[in-house]
Design brief:
Layout: E1 11-14, E2 20-23, E3 26-27, H1 33-43, E4 50-51, H2 52-60, H3 68-82, H4 86-89, E5 90-93, E6 96-99, H5 107-123, H6 127-140, H7 151-178, H8 183-195, H9 200-212, H10 216-234, H11 240-250, H12 264-271, H13 300-311, E7 319-324, H14 331-342, E8 350-354, H15 367-377, H16 389-401, E9 406-412, H17 415-418, E10 429-434, E11 444-447, H18 454-465, H19 467-472, H20 474-484, H21 488-500, H22 506-513, H23 516-522, E12 524-525, E13 528-529, H24 530-539, H25 543-552, E14 560-561, H26 562-569, H27 573-585, E15 590-593, E16 596-598, H28 601-609, H29 617-639, H30 663-686, H31 690-707, H32 710-724, H33 730-746, H34 750-764, H35 769-785, H36 789-805, H37 809-826, H38 829-846, H39 849-865, H40 869-882, H41 889-905, H42 909-926, H43 929-945, H44 949-966, H45 969-985, H46 989-1006
Parallel strand pairs: 7-10, 7-11, 8-9, 9-10
Antiparallel strand pairs: 1-2, 2-3, 4-6, 5-6, 12-13, 14-16, 15-16
Helix pairs in contact: 1-2, 1-3, 2-7, 5-6, 6-7, 7-9, 8-9, 9-10, 9-11, 10-11, 13-14, 15-16, 18-20, 18-21, 20-22, 23-28, 26-27, 26-29, 29-30, 29-31, 30-31, 30-32, 31-32, 32-33, 33-34, 33-35, 34-35, 35-36, 35-37, 36-37, 37-38, 37-39, 38-39, 39-40, 39-41, 40-41, 41-42, 41-43, 42-43, 43-44, ...
């Protein structure tokens, strides 16, 4: 294939079957399965930006690796290299990528073009041309996308394309039958029926071809086969259309007789009913739409889709769009707004009907009554409207078939109510709104408007209250938008109250809404109330669902999975999932991602407000806390197999635990449950579950330490200590105090940490040697941070001896690193290197990779102090190989900073600058103040050696400020030393002398050797 403009070969892709790429006559090798999946996902949506998240989901289904985003970018880079002109074919677009293709470069694009031309030719009465276009479509089809091996995301798209393929095939054989063909169609029709045995339309085409070929008995046998298959597979009988065809063949009815070719236009004219009396042109077409909101805000994507469908050329049937969502989410406002914008496209009428599916104090409207109203609106006299529903429905379909109507069926209860009301013409548009998605309503495209964003909420408040009022209190307006949770009804109710109370400030209403126990009562104005809206959805459920809804409101996390839900409800995971899906269908739950559900804040508040005495809330919370204790223990066993347990493993509970196969799944589970775990620890403490709270907290601490979340680490420890003080268990209390002291060290609260660790040591006495050893080690860690090196050495040496005596290798390795740190700070580099090397050996034997990073880092620093730069480089290289920026990012930044220092000393200047800046970026976003002061000092020294004295001074001043805030004396001294050298380089000798004297005083007080004072 060649470019029309240049005569050069261009790339063409075929995705309707196994993936193929062609450059002229040459097949393009597209690379690995991951690269193929990424490419196909882009080609399925040519010209549209595909987000990186969707490409990740397509490439790995439900279990992407942690480096998935990076691997997708690598796959795109590889594809751009492999595909001729790939850089212009796959372009970066915002947060994703876009495939840019010409009209003849993709078989999917041609398939769409041919099928559109076929529809138009059929509508224009040109069947011969339509058949040719449809045949071209069928010739492009080679099977499922990627031959069915593309994973869940691509398979879902492939199924949709398969439906389009089958629709084309059915239309093709229908036209061929109308043109008088029969015998020649039987073979290909049999192949399709074999591949799709439950497809009744295809079976009907085969029966008709057999009958018209003079094979009536075989045609009747086909009906028998499909009836038996439908009963066996689905428990249903054939539909009315296929049954009618069977009966017509059985009777040799004229309607199924062999066709004499005729134009489609003639055939269509014969099928149209005689028109009813139309409204005179002088009278306006009926319009019963409610008024359009002048301040309508947001919903750009959903509105765009509604307008796109509403203005698209007529297809083969009525266009139906459903809008579902929770009460108060603005479904009606969106549908009405779209209907007003589309009014000119439907000149015969725009009809609105409130079906009252969820209206307070009212019964849902019966379809018969609604049909009567619709027919009268269109001018049908009463005497011509039949009494029974069946004939009334038929009349409505006849009348609507002769018009271009827009029908908005609002507030629908269920599919049975809606189905008779749908117009029959392909020139009509039906908009349906409801709180429940009606999956049994065929042919509907559903849209689910989410919540308004913070910006959209603020914009809506401004439009309703006026710019002057909102501009005077921008922070209060933002807080009000947050309290309303993006729910349009809540936003409108609050603005109605403010307009009705001109003396109220926005902040005054915010303060009233801040009390969660009265928030729903505040969100009421006139007949509109968020609580009443939610009550309708709640009351529409069965009692069992209502009880489950109330219990799920106890879940403290923002996301609920099936296992934690099962624990709360006291059921198994399958039953819990059914409950969650029912509540999702009722829009009382949201779905964040597959398998994860959550409450809107106002819905959760409502669930709490309707709790009943018989709900056994205490029992539900106990089951949830027990489940999380067992689940975190399981995850910790995978991620931290060498950790020191406290007591016996938890006894297996009744709740099912998630399946976690390996580190990645366990860590992903912790990440997903992070918020829920923090809230559950606090919940256990407030519910008096003191021992469980402490044990759960201990499990969560391992994860928080791994991710470097030390504010949360300290907060969880405080809950554990408070809980333990209620127990008669000095060992567990001492252990929790030690963990709290470690958190205080990480956050720079050294004096508080010493007080806490000292209490743990005094409390434990001689009761538990392991906890005593831990307390002593932590005291050494904290005294080292304060620069009390003699005390630090004494505590750490004692701790190491106790750990070794007890056979606690993991704890010994940690203490060895801490003592190595003190010795290296002091300038005793040889001893520091020996201690760090011993710790590294222990960590490798134990498989403790995170601790090995630390021991290798300090071993490298000791080698640097000894002038052994190549050895230092080897240690840091090994440490970098073990690093993962998502795990303890502050420690990774520490390694990168010293790697930059080593590179500079070895003459690799550009690498040094690159790693130094990366270290600063990483520690700024994921490091504590403790780690920031260290990293900023090291990077400052790198800039100084590179001749950037101004930048070095800036960094050392920043490090001085950070370290002074903590009382971190070694880094204060190093910052002063760096400031002195930078000032000297800048020619400010007075400042240099002042800073150097201050640094020397600190070094003297800490007992740092002359060798240890060299940066």
């Amino acid at each position: 294939m060649e470019s029309a403009a240049l005569g050069h070969p261009v790339v063409r892709f075929n995705i309707l079957g196994p993936l193929e790429g062609w450059h002229g006559e040459h097949r393009v090798r597209l690379g690995s399965p991951t690269q193929e999946r990424v490419l196909v996902t882009l080609l399925l949506e040519p010209g549209r930006m595909v987000p990186l998240t969707r490409l990740v989901a397509a490439a790995w289904d439900d279990e992407p690796p942690q480096t998935a985003s990076h691997q997708v970018r690598k796959a795109v880079a590889a594809l751009r290299t492999r595909i001729p002109g790939g850089s212009s074919l796959i372009v970066t677009d915002g947060a994703g990528y876009r495939a840019v293709l010409g009209e003849h470069q993709l078989d999917l694009h041609e398939f769409g073009q041919w099928s559109r031309q076929a529809r138009q030719a059929t509508a224009d009465g040109r069947p011969e041309e339509a058949v040719g276009h449809l045949r071209a479509c069928l010739d492009l089809w080679r099977g499922p996308v990627m031959a069915g091996a593309g994973g869940a995301v691509i398979s879902a798209a492939s199924l949709a394309l398969e439906e389009r393929h089958m629709a084309v095939a059915e239309q093709y054989y229908e036209l061929q039958l109308e043109r008088g063909q029969s015998t020649e169609l039987i073979g290909p029709l049999r192949e399709l029926v074999t591949a799709h045995p439950l497809r009744e339309t295809l079976r009907g085409r085969l029966m008709l071809a057999l009958y018209r070929a003079g094979r009536q008995a075989e045609a009747l046998e086909e009906f028998g086969r499909v009836r038996a298959l439908l009963v066996e597979e689905l428990g249903i009988d054939p539909g009315a259309e296929l049954t009618g065809l069977y009966e017509a063949i059985l009777r040799d009815s004229p309607e199924v007789a062999p066709r004499v070719p005729q134009s489609m236009a003639d055939r269509a004219a014969l099928l149209l009913p005689a028109p009813l009396d139309r409204t005179p042109d002088s009278e306006p077409a009926p319009c019963t739409l409610p008024y359009d909101l002048p301040d309508f805000t947001g919903r750009d994507e959903e509105l765009g889709r509604l307008l796109e469908v509403g203005r698209a050329p007529a297809g083969r049937g009525t266009r139906i769009i459903g809008v579902d969502g929770m009460g108060g989410s603005g479904k009606t406002a969106l549908a009405v707004h779209a209907a007003h914008l589309l009014a000119a496209d439907y000149p015969d009428g725009q009809l609105f009907i409130d079906l009252r599916g969820f209206s307070p104090g009212e019964k849902a409207q019966e379809p018969g009554a609604v049909l009567h109203s619709l027919l009268r609106t269109l001018g049908v006299p009463d005497e011509r409207i039949p009494d029974d529903l069946e004939r009334r429905t038929a009349l409505w379909r006849t009348v609507s078939a002769q018009r271009k109507l827009l029908v908005l069926l609002d507030n629908a209860a269920n599919a049975a109510q809606v189905r008779p009301l749908l117009p029959a013409s392909e020139n009509c548009l039906a908009l349906v709104t409801g709180r429940v998605r009606m999956l049994d309503l065929d042919g509907v495209e559903w849209l689910s408007p989410g919540l308004l964003s913070a910006d959209e909420s603020t914009t809506l408040l401004t439009r309703m209250l006026g710019a002057d009022r909102t501009g005077a209190e921008p922070q209060a307006v933002a807080r009000l938008a947050g309290l309303c949770g993006g729910l349009p009804l809540a936003l409108r109710v609050t603005t109605a109250r403010l307009r009705n109370r001109p003396r109220w400030t926005v902040q005054y209403l915010v303060d009233r809404l801040a009390d969660e126990t009265r928030r729903l009562r505040e969100l009421s104005a006139g007949e509109r109330s968020v609580e009443a809206t939610l009550r309708l959805s709640y009351q529409a459920m069965e009692e069992g669902q209502r009880g489950a809804f109330r219990l799920l409101g106890l879940h403290p996390g923002s996301a609920i999975d099936v296992h934690s839900a099962a624990a709360l409800l006291g059921t198994d995971a399958h039953d819990a999932e059914d409950v969650l899906e029912d509540l999702l269908d009722a829009h009382l739950l949201e779905q964040h991602e597959a398998g994860l559900y959550g409450f809107h804040d106002l819905v959760r508040t409502y669930a709490m407000s309707v709790r009943e005495a018989e709900d056994d809330a205490e029992g539900a919370v106990e089951r949830l806390v027990s489940y999380y204790t067992l689940a975190t223990d399981q995850a910790c066993e995978i991620l931290f197999p060498g950790r020191n347990r406290y007591g016996d493993p938890p006894a297996p509970g009744a709740a099912e635990l998630p399946r976690l196969d390996g580190d990645e799944q366990a860590l992903r589970w912790f990440d997903r449950e992070h918020d829920a775990l923090l809230a559950t620890v606090a919940q256990a403490g407030t519910h008096g579950m003191h021992r469980t709270a402490a044990l759960l907290a201990r499990n969560v601490l391992f994860y928080l330490h791994l991710r470097g979340r030390y504010e949360e680490f300290r907060a969880v420890n405080r809950v554990a200590v408070t809980a333990c003080r209620q127990l008669d268990d000095p060992v567990l209390l001492s252990l929790s105090l030690c963990n709290l002291a470690v958190g205080q060290w990480w956050l720079g609260n050294f004096h508080d940490g010493i007080t806490t660790a000292q209490e743990a040591l005094e409390l434990i006495g001689g009761n538990d040697p392991r906890t005593r050893a831990f307390s002593i080690e932590v005291l050494g860690l904290l005294h080292g941070a304060l620069g009390d090196f003699d005390e630090a050495r004494a505590y750490l040496a004692q701790g190491i001896a106790l750990h070794r005596e007890l056979g606690m290798d993991r704890a010994e390795a940690e203490a060895l690193v801490n003592l190595s740190t003190v010795q290296t700070w002091s300038g005793h580099y040889a001893e520091g290197a020996w201690l760090a090397a011993r710790a590294t050996d222990l960590n490798r034997r134990l498989g403790e990779h995170n601790h090995e990073i630390s021991s290798l880092s300090w071993l490298a620093l000791a080698h640097l102090g000894l002038g052994e730069d190549e050895r230092a480089r080897a240690c840091l290289s090994q440490a970098l190989e073990l690093c993962d920026e998502s795990r303890q990012p502050g420690n990774v930044a520490f390694v990168l900073a010293h790697w930059a220092r080593v590179c500079q000393r070895l003459g690799e200047v550009s690498l040094a600058a690159e790693h130094a800046e990366r270290a600063l970026d990483l520690v700024a976003t994921g490091g504590t103040v403790l780690r920031q002061s260290s990293v900023v000092n090291v990077v400052g020294s790198v800039h100084l050696r590179a001749g950037a004295a101004d930048r070095a001074m800036e960094l050392h001043r920043r490090a001085h400020e950070l370290a002074t805030r903590l009382g971190y004396r070694i880094e204060i001294a190093r910052a002063l030393h760096g400031m002195a050298e930078a000032a000297q380089a800048l020619g400010d000798r007075t400042a240099a002398s002042r800073h150097q004297r201050a640094a020397e005083a600190l070094y003297d007080a800490m007992g740092v050797t002359e060798a240890g004072r060299r940066l």
